[in-house]
Amino acid sequence: MTEIDAKTDALVPAWLTLPDIAELLDVEVTRVRQLVKEGQLIAVRRGENRALHVPAEFIGDGRIVKGLVGTLTLLRDDGFTDEEMLEWLFTADPTLPGTPAQALRENRGTEVKRRAQALAV
């Protein structure tokens, strides 16, 4: 987990704390920490108390958005840092349209993964 810069913070429309996510997923906070540790979620330190936060768009309908974990794995395998992954996920892509994070929420994960794989070339 790293400090977040203003550029990335400005790209992400909304953030959730780990306790917020635990409540949404109906699990203990320790489980959310484990998801972060396993790379299934990206958490960054932000705010005055430097608490861990996860982009709100990563959670939907009481679970992690479908396709997110696989996309994060692809990007990580391509050598992306957490900040670079967030920047990529929340930067508009006119070919999608929208951001990759929005496309994942709209169940268009195949398109997002295809673009993530193309980055490795």
Short description:
Helix content is 48%, strand content 12%.
Question: How would you describe this protein?
Answer:
This protein has 121 residues and is α+β, with helices and mostly antiparallel strands. The protein has one domain (6-119). The chain has seven helices and five strands. A three-stranded antiparallel beta sheet has the order 1-3-2. A two-stranded antiparallel ribbon has the order 4-5. Helix 2 (18-25) crosses helix 3 and helix 4 packs parallel to helix 7 (109-119). It is globular, with a radius of gyration of 14 Å. The relative contact order is 0.17. GO terms for molecular function: DNA binding. It holds the Pfam family Rv2175c_C. This is Helix-turn-helix domain-containing protein. InterPro entries: Rv2175c_C, Rv2175c_wHTH.
List the helices and strands and how they pair.
Blueprint: H1 6-11, E1 15-17, H2 18-25, H3 29-37, E2 44-46, E3 51-55, E4 59-60, E5 63-64, H4 68-77, H5 82-89, H6 100-105, H7 109-119
Antiparallel strand pairs: 1-3, 2-3, 4-5
Helix pairs in contact: 2-3, 4-7
InterPro entries: Rv2175c_C, Rv2175c_wHTH
Pfam family, one: Rv2175c_C
GO molecular function, one term: DNA binding
Order of strands across the biggest sheet? Answer: 1-3-2
Return the string of H and E elements: HEHHEEEEHHHH
**First and last CA, distance:** 27 Å
Q: How many domains is the backbone divided into?
A: 1
Overall pLDDT score: 92
User: Unreliable stretches, pLDDT < 50, 5 or more residues?
Assistant: none
Task: Profile the largest sheet.
Answer: 3 strands, antiparallel
Extended strand count: 5
- Strand percentage, roughly? 5-15%
**Global shape:** globular
Structural class by secondary-structure content: alpha+beta
Oligomer: single chain
The helix content, as a percent range, equals 40-55%
